[in-house]
Structure formats: C-alpha cells, structure tokens
From TrEMBL:
<feature type="signal peptide">
    <location>
        <begin position="1"/>
        <end position="23"/>
    </location>
</feature>
<dbReference type="Pfam" id="PF14273">
    <property type="entry name" value="DUF4360"/>
</dbReference>
<dbReference type="InterPro" id="IPR025649">
    <property type="entry name" value="DUF4360"/>
</dbReference>
<protein>
    <recommendedName>
        <fullName>Secreted protein</fullName>
    </recommendedName>
</protein>
<keyword id="KW-0732">Signal</keyword>
Amino acid sequence: MSGLKIIVLALVGASLFVPSTSASPLPPRPQPQLTVKLLSANGSGCRRDTTTKPPVDALVLPSGAVTVRYRGFSVSGSDYKSCVLFVSVATPVGWTYLIPSVANQATVTLDESATATLSTAMWFTGLEWTVRDTKKVTGPQNRTWNTSAVPRPAAWAPCGTSVNLSIAETVRVAGSPANTARLVATTFGPPKWRRC
C-alpha cells in the first residue's frame, strides 16, 4: 500500500516539469481602423469658391484621428461664419466607438476691445448632441488659438449599424472690421473602441 502511494506521488511530481503547450496566451486581436469619408461641407465658412479646389480637405492620421483643413474660413469684425461637416463612418461588425475630443486650430488678430468666439457641436445623425462647447478669447491678441471640446457624458456610436457623424463649427468676431479670426483645422479622434 505504501509503495502505491510513492508511485502516484512520483508521477504527479514528474508532471510538474513537463512543458505545457496550452499555457501560451493568444495574441490580442487588433482594434479596427476607422473608415471615414467626408460626405459634404456646408455653410458660409466653407463655401466652394470659383476654383476647382474643395473648401475643405480631410485626412486620416496614422493614429486614427481625422483632420479637416479649411480654405477661406475667415471672419472679420461684427460678423460670423459657420460650417457643418457631414462624415460617413463605417463601423466594423461587433464594434462600437466614441470620439473622445474635437480640437480646433485657429488664428486671431484682435485689438483690445475685440473678442472672438468659437462654438463646436458634434452629434451622431438622428441622436442627441455629444458635444456642445463655446470658447472665447479677448484682445489684444495676434496668435494661434487652439481649443478642445470633450463629449460629456461620453457617447458611444450605436452598435450594429454605421451612422454618420456631424460636426458644426461657428466663428464669431465682435469688433471693428480690422479684427479677424480664421479657422484653420478641426481634428476629431482618435476613436476609442469597445466590443458590442
């Protein structure tokens, strides 16, 4: 009886030194890439001029963020301009995403009595606003002006479908016509992903 116990213990002890083929973890699945297409840009800040160049250019960055660059989105004192971007976003099956922020780059030239205001809104088509934000700068200023807006609360795209994204930008300048503000670019993303 005691010999049997020794044999069983020896077998158990020996099995601890056998290399395991099932212990190696599976490589993590890569997160999907956002497939984005700018459908249209409408408004006084992004009107098509007489040239063949479109009023905006869209570029998907290596990080997955999307940058839209404007041509001619410039406002003089006591006026305002706006542009609404309509973006098609293809979402892979089984995934959803959120856009964590919308950043803007502008330039301002303001005297001591002038102000510039930049309002940003973002929403998924057919759903409530995910971003509503307004930033203001007071003169005297002659510089680059960067702003950022964050969705509060965070809003995930609907699962199981691809919905378009809308981004509206409005620039307003209060002061004499010598005061100007120019919206140069809007960047949104990179997206955050999760499984549905």
